[in-house]
Amino acid sequence: MWLWNEFVMAKKNRKPGSSWQQTKSSLTRDRIIIATLECIIEFGYVQTTMVRIAGLAGVSQGSMQYHFPAKIDAIKAAINYLHIKRLSEHQKGLAEIPEGLNAVAHATEVYWKHLNDGHFVAYQDLVMAARTDPELASVLRSSYRRFVKAWRSEILSQVPEWKKSREQFELICDIGQYQLEGLAFGTLGRQIDADRARDVVESTKALLIDMLDKMK
Q1: Residue-by-residue pLDDT tens, the chain, 216 positions
Q2: 119 and 193, same domain (yes or no)
Q3: Which terminus of the chain has a smaller tally of CB atoms within 10 A, N or C?
């Protein structure tokens, strides 16, 4: 279901005016990219192979290799898609602030929710694999930096007064971001239960609100 929903969204986002052949080729590429992410979630990075990706995408080996000659090529495209998807969902969540809710509390909840979906599961598996794969590590590093820069810019566009203390703002973001990401990693391995995780999220939220209020 996750794979099908992703493919439907990719299909809707195709630009009008393309020829049938171009559209068909683009949709095939989308299916391969999404299947790559699905394989990573289901089997892990090491067990994600060209054969498995092609099988899940429903394409021939020839078509698979036409679009992506090697596994790393499919992985790079999947990471780029993952980056765009995560950023889009995060920006949408930030923009939908419930009436009366503190903006920092809302941003914390949005990021925590964001860290508990299928995209983050795939991302974490890639991070683990990158420890022994320099090429993958390089691709992930640049993608992650773009993601962080983009979503923090989005926050600053909503609260422009924080730009006056940019260095302090970045440090506070680091504290909140890495605490939540570490917590999410712990919950993926079930080392931390849901109740304890919620306590940590609430404490993080209170800490960030206090630090940002003092920054003003």
Answers
A1: 444 454 445 555 555 555 545 556 778 898 999 899 888 888 888 899 999 999 999 999 999 999 999 999 999 898 888 888 877 877 787 777 788 888 888 889 988 988 887 777 788 888 888 888 888 898 888 888 888 888 788 778 877 888 888 899 999 999 999 999 999 988 887 889 999 999 999 999 999 999 988 876
A2: yes
A3: N
Neighbours of 157 (CB within 10 A): 11
Of 53, 69, 85, the position where a domain reaches its end is: 69
Residues 103 and 146 in one domain: yes
If asked whether residues 61 and 111 sit together in one domain, one would say: no
Q: What is the CATH number of the domain that holds 216?
A: 1.10.357
Does residue 122 contact residue 37 with C-beta atoms inside 8 Å?
A: yes
